[in-house]
Specification:
Number of helices: 9
CATH architecture: 4-Layer Sandwich
Largest sheet: 7 strands, mixed
Strand content: 25-35%
CATH superfamily: Carbon-nitrogen hydrolase
Helix content: 25-40%
CATH class: Alpha Beta
Radius of gyration: 18 Å
Number of strands: 19
């Protein structure tokens, strides 16, 4: 059984700053963290151009003071399932792909974390040499590429090409615990809840939401994931057309109450940021005890492993 109990507040702070989760002390962050979401239209199959765009927008995020920036699902190739399936060696990435060096360089130069969507194969894929995943590539502030997150919930059309990931991914940055998600993952409330009960303070989603139904869908899913789990939520979506889909843009960041903190336009490339505030997080979790109440009932989620990776 999981137990989540508030600990005494530190000093004169009116808010709880630590919780006990599964008999382990989990601290809330002590300092603010500015994060960014980037949206743009990738060039279909032009990996070099999309990497250059990633570098450009990473610089914009850094100029705005962000310490981390998230890009859309499969941004480095475009969504493009037929291209990727037809030539994985050209359109998917492995752990040490030299084409990614410009991203490593901008991370080092600007001291920023980059999370960018790509198809992966080979050593970075759990499925073996011939396995393909829809993944979030992760680069720390030193420009080091760490183990990626692989999308766990696949659409039926995706399942014909890709293998699902088997493990959640939690990043630790400046005291913040940041869980990763890719698009359809977020449609399953259990995915975000599992992140929250594993100590996530924020939930970062790379995605492709369509102009036809995706805007409505995303405005329901992500505020709910935020409020249901009292955590910040970020969405990075495409604009324009990719893989035959017209995307709706509107990348956004939500507060732990489910309020929109920042939102991009629906048809243009843009970088937006928001400041994650530990006092706000603590206040919401003090007032909205959904995680404590969930665990007090002895609720058990399906078995799942969570991998925690430090970015500091």
């Amino acid at each position: 059984m999981l137990a989540l109990e508030s600990a005494p507040a530190h000093g004169n702070s009116p808010f709880t700053t630590e919780f006990t989760l599964s008999h382990t002390q989990v601290s809330l962050p002590q300092t603010s963290l500015r994060i960014a979401t980037a949206q743009a239209q990738p060039v279909p199959g032009d990996v070099a151009a999309n990497i250059a765009r990633t570098v450009e927008l990473t610089g914009v995020a850094a100029d705005q003071g962000a310490k981390l920036v998230v890009f859309p699902e499969k941004f480095l190739s475009g969504y493009e399932p037929d291209l990727i399936a037809g030539d994985p060696a050209k359109y998917a990435f492995d752990a040490h792909d030299p084409r990614l060096e410009p991203i490593r360089t901008v991370c080092r130069q600007r001291e920023i974390v980059v999370i960018v969507g790509a198809a992966t194969c080979g050593r970075v894929a759990e499925g073996g040499a011939n396995g393909l995943h829809i993944s979030s590539l992760i680069f720390n502030r030193a420009g080091e590429q760490i183990e990626p997150y692989h999308k766990q919930y696949l659409y039926s059309s995706e399942a014909r090409i890709y293998q699902p990931g088997s493990q959640g991914c939690m990043l630790e940055l400046d005291g913040w615990r940041l869980a990763l998600s890719v698009c359809y993952d977020s449609g399953f409330p259990e995915h975000a809840r599992l992140a929250a009960v594993n100590g996530a303070h924020a939930y970062l989603a790379s995605a492709l939401f369509s102009a036809k139904t995706g805007y409505h869908q995303s405005r329901i899913w992500f505020p709910a994931r935020a409020f249901d789990n009292t955590m910040y939520v970020l969405l990075s979506n495409h604009v324009g057309t990719t893989g035959g889909w017209a995307a709706c843009g509107a990348s956004a960041i939500w507060s732990p109450y489910g309020d929109v903190m920042a939102q991009a336009g629906r048809d243009r490339a843009e970088v937006i940021t928001a400041l994650l505030d530990p006092a706000v997080l603590a206040c919401v979790r003090e007032r909205e005890t959904v995680l404590a109440d969930f665990n007090a009932r002895g609720e058990v989620l399906a078995a799942n492993r969570y991998r925690v990776q430090r970015l500091d």
